[in-house]
Amino acid sequence: MVENMLINMAQTGRLGPKVSICRKVLLWVYTVVASVEI
Fold first, then answer.
1. Rounded to whole angstroms, how far apart are CA atoms 35 and 28?
2. Contact indicator for 7, 22 with CB cutoff of 8 Å
3. Angle between helices 19-37 and 2-15 (to 10 degrees)
4. What is the DSSP letter of 1?
5. I want to staple 13 with a disulfide (CB 3.0 to 4.6 A). Which of 2, 4, 6, 22 is the partner?
6. Per the structure, how many domains does the chain have?
């Protein structure tokens, strides 16, 4: 479920001009998910 969301965000980041912002959001979400799983 979370992986699909990350994939969708990555795809929209590639299509859109705000790639750097999407990458920052992806990193933030990844760190949050990692901390929750731990």
1. 11
2. no
3. 170
4. -
5. 22
6. 1
Report d(CA 2, CA 17) in Å as an integer.
23
Q: pLDDT digits over 5-37, tens only?
A: 777 767 765 555 566 777 788 888 888 888 887
Phi, psi of 16 (to 5 degrees): -90, 170
> Angle at Cα 33 formed by Cα 38 and Cα 30, nearest 5°?
125
What is the DSSP-derived secondary structure letter of residue 17?
Answer: S
Q: Determine the length of the chain.
A: 38
Distance of CA 34 to the CA centre of its chain: 12
Give the residue numbers spanning the domain of 18. 2-37
